[in-house]
Design a protein that fits this description.
single chain, alpha/beta, Rossmann fold, Hypothetical Protein Tm841, Chain: A,domain 3, six-stranded mixed sheet, four-stranded parallel sheet, globular
């Protein structure tokens, strides 16, 4: 029997150093800016990306992983080893990457390839990838690893405050009404994911009140928060993310965090000034 290989994609927004330390291999959705194709975090850092899109003339577009890319990598592993593959995918409601992987799996070897839709994005997705890698390192079998992944997916909460509603609207992620609310003076819109879809949650007057409300939602929805690893993502404002971390630690006693900057794939739709928190619900 071979080993279990965990795959993910760069929409999990985990830094490459962490991904490498987990033994996870990534597929890459791409971002095109001024006819140049970039691989998020591989040849385009989040910092450079936000500098580029500060130009209002720059309109980034994203592309899913192709069926051919999945087939090539799946075939390399299946033909060359006795290993099995578990690919943990970006939400099927936000990208066609999951469907492409399913097609490739059927063409290559459905018996040895498992494709799982996380219905998640960014570090909410990344926390599930981390749990899967930990399950592998603990020697769990395939069924046990899949159960760990599915448990995380069923409990993962995503709550975020979007900084650039125009970009979110252009990507078709929120309605024109929600975008207009977010662009009103001193109005912030809190969003969440439900069944993999981005949906408006509520509004707050100003960023300070929006962050306070975000913590109230954590308290209402979260389970055993001090025992969890809390995910925090930000775009172009590390200090704001660290401030949010301190607020969470002070209020709930949390000590374990994964903090990462939102990469170009997600950032193409939410823009700069976004703050996200990820945790497990009751």
């Amino acid at each position: 029997m071979g080993k279990i290989r965990i795959y993910a994609d760069n929409a999990c927004d985990l830094d490459k150093e962490l991904i490498d330390s987990l033994g996870v291999k990534l597929f890459y959705l791409t971002v095109t800016i001024k006819d140049v194709v970039y691989h998020d975090r591989l040849d385009l850092s989040p910092g450079d990306f936000y500098t580029m899109i500060a130009d209002p003339e720059v309109m980034p577009t994203t592309s899913q992983v192709s069926v051919g890319d999945f087939q090539e990598e799946f075939k390399r592993v299946i033909d060359g080893t006795d290993d099995e593959i578990i690919y943990i995918a970006f939400s099927s409601e936000l990208s066609g990457t999951y469907q492409a992987a399913c097609l490739a799996r059927e063409e290559v070897c459905p018996e040895r390839i498992t494709v799982i839709d996380t219905k998640s994005a960014s570090v909410g997705y990344g926390l599930t990838v981390i749990r899967a890698a930990q399950a592998v390192s603990q020697g769990m079998n395939k069924e046990e690893i899949i159960a760990e992944i599915e448990d995380n997916i069923s409990h993962m909460q995503h709550i975020f405050i979007v900084g650039n509603f125009d970009m979110l609207k252009r990507g078709g992620r929120v309605s024109s009404t929600a975008a207009a609310l977010g662009n009103l003076l001193n109005i912030k819109l809190l969003l969440h994911l439900q069944e993999g879809k981005i949906l408006p949650l509520e509004k707050a007057h100003g960023l300070k009140k929006a962050k306070r409300r975000l913590l109230d939602l954590m308290e209402a929805r979260g389970r055993d928060l001090p025992e969890q690893t809390i995910g925090i993502c930000y775009s172009a404002d590390l200090n704001g993310a660290l401030e949010l971390k301190e607020q969470i630690a002070r209020r709930f006693g949390c000590e374990k965090f994964v903090i990462s900057e939102i990469g170009a794939v997600i950032g193409s739709h939410v823009g700069a000034g976004t703050y996200s928190v990820f945790f497990l619900k009751k």
